TrEMBL record:
GO function term, MF aspect, one: Glc3Man9GlcNAc2 oligosaccharide glucosidase activity
Organism: Paenibacillus lutimineralis
This protein's name: Mannosylglycerate hydrolase MGH1-like glycoside hydrolase domain-containing protein
Domain spans labelled Mannosylglycerate hydrolase MGH1-like glycoside hydrolase: 215-521
Similarity comment: family membership: Belongs to the glycosyl hydrolase 63 family.
Keywords, in A-Z order: Glycosidase, Hydrolase
Length: 538
């Protein structure tokens, strides 16, 4: 078992200590007894002896042992170093993570094996409670200087985090009894992935995952914000404002942010105005005029980035420079090269600009509203002229201005999100294609199953994804296809009972794929349970 640290994002090594259960100086086998708020390692042959850990407060791990020892062996780099600090305390400097840890013995005994070798310890091993009995300790993480604190006893510390989670769980939407296991799992994943402000993180951020993808991305944040909007509006707004705080002078939002890095190498599709509109519908707190004006200004600059820096001229549509820009990293429309003119990008932009026009009217910016409306009309005309071919939408390889051969990606049907602008017969045609080519037992595939590029575990080449499912369900409902929207919502909720809250899912078996614990999957489940739970239950 490993003790991990997520500073520095998913490109930084996260394993910092190997954890062993010991007795009389020998490693022993153990079973795990876990809840959402504590981890207990139970001696397999002597279950009355155990070691328990909990994260009692931000940046604080508390531990308690009974009859066994807990040994932490550092996975160190050359300069990582442990040194005595005060009586019963040792400070560990992790150069690779740019953090420090304070180990404080609160009760019992400790054995530290950390011989020095010129510029760092040869090895570092810390054993709490080496001689049995009872023992407790604290491990604290910080950047520069340790701040003295008072420690309560372990049961009180554990009760604190237990109550914190109970409050979070209580605020999650109520679901039909059948889906209570999914509610419990989704609630835990979202709660556990919230990290506090530090470094580049200007507020509390909900990371995508704590397994591999521990950053906040600028479209997963939208789905997490939507889920939080009704009951945790401050935290919901923070998910957007983190990116607004770091918005580039060009207008682009960062692709992802963690405590240490901001990446602009890619970006994500312009769904942010839609997300904010949804948030406003869920909670009137987001209708405060100063807030609306602030978000409008940021969305205006983000939209102009696409219009000014992502297209060659006014006769062409904005482009994706990489599959990652779309969020559909390896979708089949990107297999022939980039940049790509894609119908989903055009549709998202048109909807975003339509929303900006409405917001401008609300703010009394009538001339700006007219300009936005004119721009949306022009982009819509370009979409239909350039990417609507033979009764379907296509993508174009921009450098050669040619239609991309592969036509099996679900991304090509995304203009459904602007069904309010499409001729009704075209909207109906897209819906029929959605059902005929992409509907599977557990939802909608990202690549048609009759496509030669379809793969069972192909990332965006077949598996079901939560955000895409939600975007289509929302579009179907907005266009009056309520029965189909409800059916797809029901399928996704059933999917979580089979595959959990995974990154994506096998559309036939429902098996969870890649990362087993994703926040936007959890958030989408909770959103659908809120909106369709009663219909599903009925």
């Amino acid at each position: 078992m490993m003790l991990r640290d997520l500073h520095g994002g998913d490109e930084a090594p996260s394993n910092i200590f190997e954890v062993r259960l010991m007795q009389n100086g020998v490693s022993v086998d153990y079973d795990l007894d876990v809840t959402e708020t504590r981890l207990r390692l139970v001696h397999r042959d002597q279950p009355q002896h155990w070691a328990e850990l909990c994260i009692s407060d931000e940046d604080v791990i508390r531990g308690m042992m009974n009859g066994v020892s807990l040994q932490l062996t550092a996975l160190k780099s050359r300069y990582d170093s442990l040194m005595p600090y005060r009586e019963g305390q040792w400070e560990y400097h992790l150069y690779t993570k740019e953090i420090k840890l304070m180990f404080t013995l609160l009760r019992g005994e400790i054995d530290v094996d950390a011989p020095w070798s010129t510029v760092g310890n040869e090895r570092i091993s810390i054993t709490f409670n080496p001689n049995g009995g009872e023992s407790s300790f604290a491990i604290e993480s910080y950047k520069t200087v340790w701040m003295r604190r008072e420690y309560d006893d372990y049961p009180a510390a554990y009760e604190r985090v237990k109550q914190h989670y109970a409050q979070w769980l209580q605020q999650m939407t109520v679901v039909p009894e059948r889906f209570e296991p999914s509610r419990q799992l989704a609630s835990y994943i979202t709660w556990s992935c919230v990290v506090h402000p530090e470094g580049q993180l200007t507020d509390y951020a909900m990371y995508m995952s704590k397994n591999w993808m521990f950053n906040i991305w600028s479209w997963d944040n939208c789905f997490n914000a939507l889920m939080l909007s009704k009951r945790r509006p401050e935290l919901a707004l923070a998910q957007l404002e983190i990116f607004m705080a770091h918005q580039d002078h060009s207008g682009i939002y960062a692709d992802f942010i963690n405590d240490k890095f901001i990446s602009f190498n890619c970006c994500k599709p312009p769904i942010h105005a839609w997300a904010f509109t949804q948030m406003r519908q869920q909670n009137a707190q987001f209708n405060e005029p100063a807030l609306v004006a602030n978000v409008y200004d940021s969305l205006k600059r983000a939209t102009n980035y696409w219009l000014e820096h992502r297209r060659s001229d006014a006769h062409h549509l904005p482009v994706y420079n990489h599959g990652n820009d779309s969020g559909w990293d390896n979708a089949s429309i990107f297999h022939e090269g980039v940049p790509v003119e894609a119908p989903d990008l055009a549709a998202h932009l048109i909807r975003q600009i339509d929303i900006l026009s409405d917001m401008a009217v609300e703010l009394g910016l009538i001339d700006e509203a007219k300009k936005w409306s004119k721009m949306a009309d022009e982009l819509y005309d370009l979409l239909m002229e350039r990417l609507y071919v033979g009764d379907t939408f296509v993508a174009r390889y921009a450098p050669e201005d040619r239609i991309i051969e592969h036509q099996g990606s679900l991304i090509l049907l995304m203009p459904l999100v602007i069904g309010y602008r499409l001729p009704p017969e075209l909207t109906d045609r897209l819906v029929k294609m959605l059902i005929a080519k992409f509907e599977a037992p557990y939802g909608i595939c990202t690549e048609s199953m009759d496509s030669p590029l379809y793969k069972d575990n192909g990332y965006w080449l077949g598996p079901i994804w939560a955000p895409v499912s939600y975007l289509y369900i929302d579009a179907l409902q907005n266009n009056g296809y309520n029965e189909l929207a409800t059916a797809l919502a029901h399928k996704f909720m059933e999917l979580t009972l089979v595959g959990g809250m995974a990154e994506n899912f096998d559309p036939i078996s429902g098996k969870g794929l890649v990362d087993p614990a994703f926040t936007w999957t959890s958030s989408v489940f909770l959103l659908l349970a809120e909106q369709f739970g009663m219909a599903v239950n009925g």
